[in-house]
Design brief:
Two copies of one chain form a homodimer.
Chain A: E1 6-10, H1 19-30, E2 39-44, H2 46-54, H3 57-61, E3 63-67, H4 78-84, H5 89-98, E4 104-107, H6 111-122, E5 132-139, E6 142-147, H7 157-175, E7 181-185, H8 196-207, E8 213-218, H9 220-225, E9 230-232, H10 235-260, H11 264-272, H12 274-283, E10 292-295, E11 300-303, H13 310-325, H14 328-346
Parallel strand pairs in A: 1-2, 1-4, 2-3, 4-11, 6-9, 7-8, 7-9
Antiparallel strand pairs in A: 5-6, 5-10, 10-11
Helix pairs in contact in A: 1-13, 4-6, 5-6, 7-8, 7-14
């Protein structure tokens, strides 16, 4: 048994797993993780992992391999994954948390399958309907958290209000802000905008006496401009908004490189200015915010972007550990109870 | 009666109307519109417009004021706007097209009210259910068109397939590409992703023999990375995606300015490299793609961003004229008829 803080890692999940996973762990231990107590349960194919670990001495020293050859494919349906995926690397990663062998599960694999396995093994917190995936995005003043970004394609108003409470607890735990602002993503800020589900959630959040710092409707541009610390939305819209933001950052990076490398003079002056440009690239680097969290489970499950590289993966490890070190599971329990008590008192039914 | 190409302008619509509107028209006539035949019917308050026109000689020379003091507020509900808004500047702008006095209507006012007035006065094209708002966004190879970006919060599969056909015709007319690619916005590219509406539209578009260049599902990042020329989605998701992209571009602009102005050395080297940086800023300037079009009406109605400045407004004028010069209304008729015939043949019911 590993001691200290343990991460249960799906070493086979992700577009370039297991290579990127092992490189990511090693990168974490060299940088942010230097001197921290983290240890790893690596779930995956020993024959593939051993040669990778030979080149990653820090990781090898802190890891234990739990061998399995079974892997969930990126395009498996969640139902298939549940039926055929017992003892897969992803299943076992979640099972490590369930069994108390690890504090956190981490996977860069199939999002739907990971949610289904988290839900089945760890169970939902009492009163929560479905887990929400919360992701981070930079804004001029810090970070915004957006949820749901993928797990719940169709939602009702009760779920949106739960997302608000879950997102608040997550933001407090990770970004250490006492009273984060919460906004509801809509197509305008006027009262009559949006659909019936959005308007019902807006009314409920506006009525609440729980002390939520609810600022009302926010729009798409507010995600990047910091209109709210926590941006609440359904999983369909949130997923598309976040990927749109990623694509736009990438587009501007492309334009940027083309503009600065246009000619010799450009190349020369750009090299003179390389420190400022380096700082800029660092601030808009999406790897810096890689790592999303399933909220509402009895346990911590972190989802890394499937296509990230080792630097992005290391960031997901860092988020995972920060979260596991906090008391947010208890905080969520208290807040969700209060929300549902209030639902009962005001007769909120959707 | 004005001769040549006439734009019927809601001079009072927009956050900073009528000032920005008149400045935008003047800017257009000085730049892109130099030497073009465009003339303007200006609907609005003569007492406010006259002093502005005194400072905009090119616009004054090509304009006729149609006086009205009635204005639609940015936060009026569409139903209110229809009830109380007859003879408002917006209403009259659309009426100018209906009456054959102008080729195009243009407004930076309330989107919902503009759609309602367009629909009531110009009527939908036969077989089209509701108009879709199509907006443009840059990608590394050119421009993507996204629709719907605001008019239809709830859609069914038949509407999504109509959007595909409308978007294709629009793309051909404005961006002069014979066979634009069409993608359906979803939370993943695998067959089982999304909700029932998306999947039904996907199946219908995949089956079609109309020669649509349908490439299947695209994701949020494809909007900026050029995954499809025409990106089809519902008005809720599309509005949020587009505003998210705008916000992200603005965020990076903020980071950019901070990074480059960090210290004296930075300022100096940046000034040496100003041409490249100017080119970059021009490429990511959202004003360059301002101007969205209501598709599916018997007439051309253009919506400018309510908060744009005169440069952005001028771009909307430019799009409007490009569209009015094309034969896209006829092209839409032919394609929509073919789509609905095919619907009947294969028994497509939603």
């Amino acid at each position: 048994m590993l001691d200290g803080l343990v991460i249960s890692v799906d070493a086979m999940g992700g577009d370039d797993a297991p290579g990127v996973v092992i490189k990511g762990l090693e990168y974490f231990l060299k940088h942010e993780g230097k001197g921290r107590r983290a240890r790893f349960l690596l779930h995956g194919d020993k024959a593939q992992l051993d040669p990778l670990l030979a080149k990653a001495p820090r990781t090898r020293e802190r890891s234990e391999i739990v061998h399995t050859e079974k892997v969930i494919a990126m395009d498996d349906k969640p139902s298939q994954a549940l039926r055929r995926g017992k003892d897969s690397s992803m299943w076992n990663a979640v099972a490590g948390v369930k069994a108390g062998r690890a504090n956190i599960a981490l996977s860069a694999g199939n999002t739907g399958a990971l949610m289904a396995m988290g839900k089945l093994q760890l169970r939902m917190k009492q009163g929560v309907q479905r887990p929400a995936l919360a992701a981070s995005w930079p804004n001029p003043n810090g970070i915004s958290v957006v949820l749901d970004v993928g797990a719940n394609v169709d939602v009702d108003a009760a779920q949106l209000t739960e997302f608000a409470v879950l997102g608040e607890a997550y933001y407090k735990a990770i970004y250490k802000k006492d009273d984060p602002t919460i906004g509801l993503l809509n197509v305008g800020t006027e009262e009559q905008k949006g659909n019936a589900v959005i308007r019902a959630a807006h009314e409920r959040l506006s009525q609440s006496q729980l002390g939520l710092n609810y600022v009302g409707y926010v729009e798409g541009n507010d995600i990047s401009m910091g209109g709210a610390d926590v941006v609440v939305t359904d999983g369909f819209t949130g997923n598309i908004a976040l990927k749109t933001a990623e694509g736009t950052a990438k587009l501007i990076g492309t334009f940027f490189n083309e503009a600065l490398k246009g000619n010799l003079w450009s190349k020369f002056t750009t090299s003179l200015n390389s420190l400022a440009l380096f700082r800029l690239k660092r601030r808009i680097d999406p790897r810096r915010v890689n790592g999303a969290v399933f909220l509402g489970l009895n346990g911590v499950v972190i989802k890394s972007h499937g296509g990230t590289d080792h630097v992005g993966y290391a960031n997901a490890v860092n988020i995972a550990i920060g979260l596991a070190e906090s008391d947010f599971l208890e905080a969520i329990d208290a807040r969700m109870d209060a929300l549902h008590d209030e639902d009962d008192n005001i007769g909120f039914i959707v």
